[in-house]
Amino acid sequence: MRLSRFLLPVLKETPSEAQIASHRLMLRAGMIRQEAAGIYAWLPLGFRVLKKIEQIVREEMDRAGAVEMLMPTLQLADLWRESGRYDAYGPEMLRLTDRHERELLYGPTNEEMITEIFRAYVKSYKALPLNLYHIQWKFRDEQRPRFGVMRGREFLMKDAYSFDLDEAGARRSYQRMFVAYLRTFARMGLTAIPMRAETGPIGGDLSHEFIVLADTGESVVYCDKRVLDLPIPDETVDYAGDLTPIVEEWGGRYYAATEDVHDPSLFERTPEDQRLQTRGIEVGQVFYFGDKYAVPMKATVTGPDGVERPIHGGSYGVGVSRLLGAIIEASHDDAGIIWPDAVAPFGVGIINLRAGDADVDLACETAYAQLQAAGLDPLYDDTDERPGGKFATMDLIGLPWQLIIGPKGLKDGVVELKRRATGEKRTLPMAEALAELTRL
Ligand code: ATP
Ligand code: MG
């Protein structure tokens, strides 16, 4: 992509409405634009990162055996009357009426709809276990939308729903999602710790919140520091096998809980020098809720014995749009964002230090073509802005690498290669710089 043909409205001034780094940086880097309180347009740079995050979430769901589909954003109120949640949900639910006076709502979550779909088609235990997910916009009319995409009103969520014949099966489904979450967040460069959590309005008796530690987070957390050093299951993890050891290690061996369920007497069993009381950002939550929806909504299957029974369910959410904020909170410096390679909006930025100079332009075009051919997705700053401004913009938008090409260096046949995360800058021949980048 050529910067001159892109839309990157960077701001020099710090927006006064933004209280935390990620919100400030997303506005300054021209990633999002607020259209109403808690409702954002995703500008091209922000949208690229959103898609990368969504794709990692999708790949790990698929790997764990979940099946993707897509449900609509609008739902019938009557569906929610069946579960009893239409009245229970309160003012966070955005309710609307169509021209035929039918009551609708903009979905804050999809337990009811997925249960309705499931019961329409699945009648036998032979189709179980089944896990269906979608990645769709949600709306919750939050009392205090704030911190940008961290607490929006409209936000993108991945929500998966598992269906099993019995509790033992449902716990295995829960464990598969638990392990998939560990992998998902790690692939984005995040350490997200599963913490025992209250089950809240979704109900049920087993739940973990996945929390990224950050001083600016809204959740208060208590944990044993040793949980931070546990190994992440790699891609060879066998989802058909017994995942209990991994789940117990991460979810049970060390104390980790959010404020709601915090038990000081348990925390005190953690050696004093390992105790960590801090704050964090909830990026995902897993629930096992048994037959909470299956009973009122009559989602039943026939078991091997021919007897019909309600299924055991779980639901599993990831805050896809919130993750942008969480990643930036975890990875930035005074100059701007530092994207982990896996979610960076472009792989490398090319800075032309003297646009209009025939030699420099030619060298930049050559590098641009080669990096593009190598699949590195370069962003080429071909504008006529001054070098200082170009450096500041590249640091702000946080691409992993910068290839800096100017007239002085080219006289000696060299360019500069900068690693954004470390600030390390090396001067080397163009061919070597390109070889190094394309080897990545
Ligand atoms: P919170 O406690 O932060 O309000 P929640 O527990 O109500 O979130 P869930 O129902 O568990 O949210 O939704 C699944 C995930 O969706 C959350 O873990 C979070 O990452 C994300 N999420 C929830 N509410 C918002 C929001 N208002 N803006 C952005 N992401 C959100
Ligand atoms: Mg939650």
In terms of topology, how is this protein built?
Elements (H helix, E strand, L loop, with lengths): L20 H8 L3 E5 L2 E4 L1 H20 L3 E2 L5 E3 H7 L1 H4 L5 E4 L5 E4 L4 H11 L8 E10 L14 E11 L2 H21 L4 E5 L9 E8 L5 E6 L19 H10 L2 E3 L5 H4 L7 E16 L3 H4 L2 E3 L5 E3 L1 E8 H11 L1 E2 L2 E2 L10 E5 L5 H16 L4 E4 L5 H11 L3 E5 L1 H5 L2 E6 L5 E5 H10 L1
Parallel strand pairs: 3-7, 19-20, 19-21
Antiparallel strand pairs: 1-2, 4-6, 5-6, 7-8, 8-16, 9-10, 10-13, 11-12, 11-13, 13-16, 14-15, 17-18, 21-22, 22-23
Helix pairs in contact: 1-10, 2-6, 2-10, 11-14
Bound molecules: adenosine-5'-triphosphate (ATP) and magnesium ion.
Tags for this entry?
single chain; 440 residues; alpha+beta; BirA Bifunctional Protein, domain 2; Rossmann fold; 2 domains; 9-stranded mixed beta sheet; 5-stranded mixed beta sheet; 23 strands; 32% helix; globular; binds adenosine-5'-triphosphate; binds magnesium ion
